[in-house]
Amino acid sequence: MKKLTLLLLFIAAVSIAQNQPPIVENVTFEQRTDNSFIVDIYYDVNDPDGNIMTVSMKVSADNGSTWDFSSNNITGDVGSGITSGTGKHIVWDFGTEHPQTFGDQFRIKIFADDGVSEGSGTPCPGVPTVTYAGKVYNTVQIGSQCWLKENLDVGTMIQSTTGGQLQTDNGTIEKYCYDNDAANCNKYGGLYEWTEAMQYTTTEGTRGICPSGWHIPTYAEMQTLQTYVNNEATKLIDENAKSGYTYTNETGFSALFAGQRYDHNGNFLDLGYFTYFWSSTEINSNYANLMYLYYYASNVYLYNYRKDNGFSVRCLKD
User: Fold this and answer.
1) Hey, is 95 helix, strand or coil?
2) Same domain for 101 and 133?
3) Is residue 79 included in any domain, yes or no?
4) Are residues 151 and 100 in the same domain?
5) Over the stretch 45-104, which tens digit does the pLDDT of each residue have?
6) What would the 3-class secondary structure string for 135-164 be?
7) Quick one: 67 and 198 in the same domain?
8) pLDDT, tens digit (0-9, with 9 covering 90-100), for 166-178
9) pLDDT of 119 over the 80 cut
10) What is the average pLDDT across 105-109?
11) Does some domain include residue 121?
């Protein structure tokens, strides 16, 4: 019997500052069991400004490595003239288009475009830049979230000469710079142990070492970002992050592969290959959640790690 296993993803186009982007949610699917092998795809879509949208679909048959699997035999709530609503329905005649095709590595992306998008890197409405501790940071609107576009670089540089926790709760923000080189902080931002990054957090919020009105994102807020960009690292990574690799950076998040300070021996690792961002959500006294990306994969990963490691911080607007 023909079997089609789909992992459904969804994305909305980034819109200009005056316009709120469409939001696609509650995507589900089912394949009919009447030997037609038709796939029914359902989704909800809302454009906060009431704009008419164009909805499109892309399919991967290799778990997201490529997105060129044809899906031409589709009807229903797809194409131009789509309005906001719940229970939208796309019918894909998979059996006719792809007879005798089987697989469990399929993914689907649903796009909603309100026709007023400006492309990547749209600044947050009314807050194009933020000045903090003498440094100017750009902002970027990604879905409903407003992010700083650069990694945080604040504090006094300390040398990493041994393993363990070296940043202390002494009332002064301390940072590591990759290879103990201040120039790397200027380019990639500082690397912070979790407790150092969170030192100004109170019961009222998770500001941490971020500027006033901003905070270190919770694990749930990182999940929101992950959902919006469809788990595609190419949508977060700066196109000049690593020589020899091309990234689209469609959202303007502009992640660079800043590496880490490894807590066991104090060495610096992974520059140009990995980037890690602390969340404010801790697992226990030793571990906290984080988000990471690496150069050769097309996914954003959420995980947890030891608090004494030095990772990057990216701030989110309250």
Assistant:
1) helix
2) no
3) yes
4) no
5) 888 878 888 888 888 888 777 777 888 899 999 888 899 999 999 999 998 999 988 887
6) EEEEEEEECCEEEECCCCCCCEECCCCCCC
7) no
8) 998 777 899 999 9
9) no
10) 79
11) no
Domain that holds residue 48: 4-113
> How far from the centroid of its chain's Cα atoms is residue 3's Cα?
31
Is residue 103 domain-shared with residue 192, that is, in the same domain? no
Residue 156 has pLDDT above 90, yes or no: yes
The verdict on residue 293 lying in a domain is yes
Amino acid at 132: Y
The DSSP bridge partners found for residue 279 are none
User: φ, ψ for residue 225 (rounded to 5)?
Assistant: -60, -45
**Is the four-CA dihedral 208, 213, 219, 222 of positive or negative sign?**
negative
Q: Give the model's pLDDT for residue 201.
A: 67
Chain length of the chain: 318
Q: What SS3 state is found at 106?
A: strand
Strands 214-215 and 260-261, sheet pairing: unpaired
Q: How far apart are the first and last CA of the chain?
A: 51
My answer on whether 95 and 181 are in the same domain is no
Contact by Cβ (8 Å): 11, 111: yes
* High-pLDDT (> 70) share of the chain, %: 80
Number of domains forming the structure of the chain: 2
Measured distance CA(43)–CA(25) in Å, rounded: 6
Which amino acid is located at 87 in the chain? G
